[in-house]
Write a structure and sequence with these properties.
Number of helices: 11
Shape: globular
Structural class: mainly alpha
Protein name: CAAX amino terminal protease self-immunity
Domain CAAX prenyl protease 2/Lysostaphin resistance protein A-like: 131-217
Helix content: over 70%
Keywords: Hydrolase, Membrane, Protease, Transmembrane, Transmembrane helix
Number of strands: 0
Pfam families: Rce1-like
Order of helices and strands: HHHHHHHHHHH
GO molecular function: endopeptidase activity
Distance between the termini: 16 Å
Strand content: under 5%
Number of domains: 1
Length: 272
């Protein structure tokens, strides 16, 4: 039996994400039946959250049953946390978002989103129920689940099997591919790379969750106010956002590299 500490390698990670997508069919079918019985509108956010959470729990139970996972408080609690460091992480995350907005515009110009896909994204992500539930699903539920799987399980295993750079790159690449569309690939890859780098330095899942939540929350805020904001429309026509974002990103990473350089990070590999 493979050591839990070294799970997963690349093959195991690919199987894990394929299993996650496959097992999602079970709660999807169950909640779709419930939706039809009670005549709940399509794209209901509560149904969507219950489906995702159920899939996540089924995946954790499968991993535990296969002796691949030790659920521990180390998966969620902050380690070596400092307010000043997290402020810099937050500034760096916002800077990354500002840069990615321009990258996404370039991707959209090269690969325009077909109207039916745009309507599908809009209905699935922002349709259905209240803005509060949309916020909970995108800013709280999704970051927790995705960070536990991709950083807490997959990247943790990769760091035991590969070099740090290769581990971060592979986990971010899988994270980007699993979004299943080219328009989210750049943002998912960048978030996965940054969160992966932070995790390799801290072994803190909750810090990665906060990064992911901040990024999703900022993106959601832009999507909510962007279409009705003349200020944002005027800003989009300039290069100021990405230049400011690039400065924030570079200075933030340089500060964090220096901050982590002499840090002594405890080995918590046994937590998963």
């Amino acid at each position: 039996m493979e050591n839990i500490k070294k799970y997963p390698n690349l093959k195991g990670a690919i199987f894990l994400v394929l299993y996650y997508e496959f097992i999602a069919l079970v709660p999807s079918l169950i909640f779709e039946l419930i939706r039809q019985i009670f005549r709940i509108p399509k794209n209901n956010q509560i149904i969507s959250m219950l489906t995702v959470i159920s899939t996540f729990m089924l995946t954790l139970l499968w991993l535990k049953r296969k002796n691949r996972l030790n659920i521990s408080k180390d998966m969620f609690l902050l380690k070596k946390f400092s307010v000043s460091r997290f402020i810099i992480i937050a500034i760096t995350t916002v800077g990354m978002l500002l840069c990615i907005v321009r990258i996404n515009e370039i991707v959209l110009n090269i690969f325009p989103v077909p109207k039916f896909i745009e309507e599908l994204f809009s209905s699935q992500l922002l349709g259905g129920t209240s803005e509060t539930l949309i916020f909970v699903r995108i800013v709280i539920v999704a970051p927790i689940i995705e960070e536990v799987i991709f950083r807490g399980i997959i990247l943790r295993g990769f760091l035991s099997n590969y070099s740090e750079r290769k581990a971060i790159f592979l986990s971010a690449l899988i994270f980007a591919i699993i979004h299943f569309n080219i328009w989210q690939f750049p943002s998912a890859f960048c978030v996965g790379t940054f969160a992966g780098w932070i995790f390799s330095r801290t072994r803190s899942i909750s810090t990665c969750i906060l990064i992911h939540s901040l990024y999703n929350g900022s993106s959601l805020l832009i999507s909510f106010v962007g279409d009705n904001s003349l200020v944002l429309d005027n800003i989009r026509g300039t290069s100021y956002p990405e230049l400011i974002g690039l400065v924030m990103l570079v200075l933030g990473i340089l500060w964090l590299k220096r901050s982590y350089k002499n840090s002594q990070i405890k080995d918590v590999e046994a937590s998963i």
